[in-house]
Each structure stands twice: as structure tokens, then as C-alpha cells.
Amino acid sequence: MEHFDVAIIGLGPAGSALARKLAGKMRVIALDKKCQCGTEGFSKPCGGLLAPDAQRAFIRDGITLPIEVIANPQIFSVKTVDVAARLTRNYQRSYININRHAFDLWMKSLIPDVVTVHHDTLCRKVWREGELWHVLFQVNGEEQHITARWLVGADGANSLVRRHLYPDHQIRKYVAIQQWFPEAHAVPFYSCIFDNAVTDCYSWSISKDGYFIFGGAYPMKDGQARFEALKAKMTDFAFHFGEPVKSEKCTVLFPSRWGDFVCGKENAFLIGEAAGFISASSLEGISYALDSAEILSNMLLNEPNNANRAYWCATRKLRFKLYSKIIKSRCLTSPALRKWIMQSGIAHIPQNHSEDYPTRFTSPTSRM
């Protein structure tokens, strides 16, 4: 039974960034359910937009994006739709359109070989005995058992580590559903859609590499029916669908109170979405994944004997920022306030061409 300084469960952007930052400074093992090749195995359903805060994290680390993770086209505005009020507005946004699965694999590829990484791996159980954390996982059909001084949950919305640390903790969850269609719009666009009759969260669309992705976050009970109902409504707003070529689902967290942010205890830590670090106003989580990984790496390296307390204090600014997103979400999902904001025309950029674009088929690329 091998012993490590740090065991990281999950290698999305948060886990990969942490493993890279600790490499060579601590003995690290990282477990991930994705394969490190092509499109095989698990892939994260995600619209795939890199927000400015995530871009700043890469600037701080001196990292540039390779061309293979960047998707086409790059879009500079979000088309915001209020279905009930039948309003459409365009707001400037500085996102980078990326292929999310390729991005995740690239982030993993940056982890130095000195880190022990197990791909296509299922973490089955974690528990604490004395001063050590025990991790039981399955790789290549065989069970393995390791111990570590510190345990890190970077395993997303359904975090095994969070459930172990906080068995009674409840946070609002939605089912995120999205479908891929051959692109049929003359002018590609990114959209944010609000319809309180369908969901008290929001829906989205994005054009990417010859495909049109339409998705949203819906109540867990009847999410699929709500998704289909919204699709039917969107034809009135010049959305063109056709037959889907791929459908995806996953659970997404929706923090709605200060207590939804949990950082860990007893030499165990949570980063990224596992900690509740995801924007309630946009469901964007990559930037908070990168920021929380950076904060935790600094605490483990500089405050090892008081790391839990140090991490909790150091993430205070991040948690306040995320709480402001909760307040913003309440404004955006309020029909009356949202309608007033959109009718005011604040920050709206009118377009010179018609919103009702003619249908045009664009042949999809082979990459999805």
C-alpha cells in the first residue's frame, strides 16, 4: 500500500491545475475517470466557453492555449432572450470558444510525469484512520488502496469526497441537458435564454465547429420534458435545430446561499464545483476551478500545518464574489426585473442585419 502526500480525486480543470502546481514539491497521486485519448470514455457536457477570469489564471501561469482546443467561430456577444416578454438583446462578452473535452485532456497533459496519474479510474471509497486518508479505487479491473496525508475532492457536482465530509449537506442541483445539431444558421451566435415557465435557471446555445449546441439547466424531476418544451418555443426566435447528432446530460450545482460553499476539513479539501464554486448567474465554473486550485496549492505549500483554516480564509474573497453571482442570478431570473433591464437597452448593442436569419446548412467537421 503506497503512501502519498496528496491524493486528488478528479482531473477536470481544478484537479489538473492543482496536480501541476504541486508536482515535484509533494508526492501526488491523481485519479480520473476520463481516458487520456480521443473521445473515448467520459466527457464533460459543457457549452465550452473560457471566461476572462479563467484567461487571467492562464496569464498568471504563463500558459497559452494550443490551437487544437480552440473552437470555431469566436463570438463577441451573447444574444439574450426573454421568452415570455419576447425580447432579444445583444451584450458584448469576451469569451473564448473552446472544445471542452479537448481542453480537459490538454489540462491533464500539462501534469508532469512525476505525478502518479490513473486514467479511466473509478474511486470507490475514501475514509480516514488516525492522521491518514485512505482511498480505494479501481483501475484496469483491479482494486488498489493507497493512503495520503491530504485528500482533495476535485470531483465535481456529485463529489464523493464532499458527500463523505458533509453527508447531511444539501445544495440545489439541476440536470444539465444539451444536444448537438448540424449548424443551420447563416450567422453563428451564442445565446442565453430565460423562460421561467420552463426553469428558474437558464438555457443556452453556442455554435461550435460546424455544430449548434442547445442546452440548459432544468429541475431534476422532469428535465427532459422541459428541455423539449423550450426547444419548441425557440423556433419563434429563429433557432433552427433539425435532428440531433448527440445528446448529453450531467448534474450541475446551483449555489443559492452562503452555506453552499464548503471547503473541507480534517486534512481534506474541496476545490472547483465540488466546493460549490460555480457561478449561479452563468453556471461558469472553469475560472473558479483554476482560482481555487491556485489558492489551495499555496496553502498546502506554505501553511501545511494549518491548511484547512488557511484555505478557508484564503477563499473568502472568492466566496464573496460567488455570492454576488447568487444575487445577480436572482435579478436575472426575476421576470419583472429582467424585463425592465432588457427594455431599458442598457449595454445593448443593436445589430444592423435582421435577427431572422435565413437557414443555411454548414457541413460539420469531424471533431465533436
UniProtKB/TrEMBL annotation:
Tell me the protein's name. Answer: Protein CbrA
- Show the Gene3D superfamilies listed in the entry: FAD/NAD(P)-binding domain
**Family annotation (InterPro entries):** FAD-bd (IPR002938), FAD/NAD-bd_sf (IPR036188), Geranylgeranyl_reductase (IPR050407)
Q: Which domain of life is it from?
A: Bacteria
Q: Residue ranges of the FAD-binding domain? A: 134-183
| Family membership | Belongs to the CbrA family.
Source organism per UniProt: Pseudocitrobacter vendiensis
Q: Which NCBIfam families match?
A: PRK11445.1 (NF008519)
